[in-house]
Q: What sequence folds into this?
């Protein structure tokens, strides 16, 4: 049984179709690189999975149990946590307070100290507002806030957006450690090569559907490029 199952999910913004009967699954401890051009529906899917948006049809299941559509608390209780595009930290709170509001009733290894061990710079900056941090440090805080919920599935939307190559490497090294602790990952990134390097499997979206899936180690670059631009749809 898959850990996470997306079954013919559709989502709309008015008349605009964002997800069009999308289906795929994620195994326990698996890392999926989810790629595709801007407008493919990746961020909408992340929002639907974490309950910020209700699908217009279809079902999402964790361990075979359906999630209540559009219910962020149900998604969090089931073990889904989002690192959102743009970070969306609270500048009126300190870094440590941002981390603390991510905590849930779920038990797990990701205590505040564990997050600081993963990102030592956050310990140094814990009393500061996110506005005082660099973009890379803010991204680390956003990852830490999501980990504070001790998720079974960490959803990472545009994980390297706006980051320097050096900071991107640091962020991906941290995700490797998260993965090694047994957390399943869905990594959305425009850097296809980088995302595929950390993944077990790659899926490409185009116009709200998955147009290509393959094991990361055998993904064909030419086919992936065609899927990226909808040429295999």
A:
């Amino acid at each position: 049984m898959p850990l996470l199952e997306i079954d013919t999910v559709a989502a709309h913004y008015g008349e605009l179709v964002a997800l069009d009967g999308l289906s795929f699954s994620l195994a326990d401890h698996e890392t999926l690189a989810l790629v595709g051009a801007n407008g493919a529906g990746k961020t909408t899917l992340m929002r639907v999975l974490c309950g910020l948006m209700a699908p217009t049809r279809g079902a999402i299941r964790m361990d075979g149990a359906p999630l209540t559509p559009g219910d962020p608390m149900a998604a969090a209780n089931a073990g889904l946590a989002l690192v959102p595009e743009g970070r969306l930290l609270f500048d009126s709170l300190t870094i440590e307070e941002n981390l603390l509001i991510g905590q849930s009733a779920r038990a797990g290894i990701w205590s505040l100290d564990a997050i600081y061990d993963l990102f030592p710079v956050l310990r140094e900056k814990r009393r500061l507002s996110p506005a005082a941090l660099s973009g890379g440090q803010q991204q680390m805080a956003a990852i830490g806030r999501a980990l504070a919920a001790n998720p079974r599935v960490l959803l990472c939307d545009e994980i390297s957006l706006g980051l320097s190559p050096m900071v991107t490497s640091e962020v991906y090294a941290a995700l490797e450690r998260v993965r090694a602790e047994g957390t399943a990952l869905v990594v959305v990134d425009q850097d296809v090569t980088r995302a595929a390097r950390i993944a077990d499997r790659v899926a490409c979206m185009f116009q709200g559907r998955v147009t290509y899936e393959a094991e990361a180690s055998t993904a064909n670059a030419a086919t992936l490029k065609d899927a990226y631009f909808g040429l295999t749809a």
Q: What stands out?
A: The longest strand covers residues 16-26. The two ends are 28 Å apart (CA to CA). The beta strands are 4-13, 16-26, 31-35, 57-62, 65-66, 80-83, 153-156, 184-188, 201-206, 209-215.
